[in-house]
Amino acid sequence: MPADAARYAGEVGPEVYAKWRSTGLGLITEELEQRLILEFAAPVRGERILDIGCGDGTLTLAFWKEGASLVIGCDSDPRMIAAARSLAARHKAKIGYVIGRAEQLPFADETFDVLTAVTLLCFFPEPSNAVREMARVLRPGGRLVIGDLGKWSLWAVSRRIRGRLGSDTWRAARFRTAGELRALAEEAELRVEMIRGAVYYPPVELLARLMAPVDPLLGRTTTLGAAFLAMRATKAHAT
What we know:
- The chain has helices at 6-9, 14-21, 24-41, 58-65, 78-90, 128-137, 154-164, 168-172, 178-187, 205-211, 215-219; strands spanning 48-52, 70-75, 96-99, 112-118, 138-149, 190-198, 228-235.
- It is of the alpha/beta class.
- The chain has one domain (3-235): Vaccinia Virus protein VP39 (Rossmann fold), CATH 3.40.50.
- It has a seven-stranded mixed β-sheet, with helices on both faces.
- Helix 5 links the parallel strand 2 and strand 3 (96-99).
- Helix 3 (24-41) packs across helix 10.
- The protein is globular.
């Protein structure tokens, strides 16, 4: 869960990310999600990119490796920013990190070519303001890529149960359909180009290993059953 939503869903630090990636299920799932986000953001070579709710910096590092001219990660949690800076330093990557909130980004209008926000909006009760703020700092013709938690999946069922049993994180989560994601973008006057799903298997490592090879094919067929949704929207050129 992105630290940018911590006030809604409880404190989550870098150690939670590391623990998730230490499992086979976590590795498989994150690879599928990140692959889809990178595909939607492409091409990034030479582009100015902002990753909102950047967490510990794995996605910003991927953008730097893909040849983006400017990569900045933004998160409200100083612990996440520290972890992201440490990761960038280990790779000698020139990536900037700033502390900031999605609803009030510390950047001028029309600064970035590509914006990403992954598993972030699902922890905001009212995400519209954040999406409008993203649209503000996006240049005309630029791309906004959002990753969110799918509403109709076995993962969502499991997480809702955990929320009812006392998990602050999953009690706060809002799961969305593709239509609801589209509405958020269109409300901010962005044009939705595509929405696809990922992670069609239940949260079981063995099934993840078996189904991962066909997961991208399912994503091109339907969003029903996807635990993760990705959307790409563009900002219109001024007339």
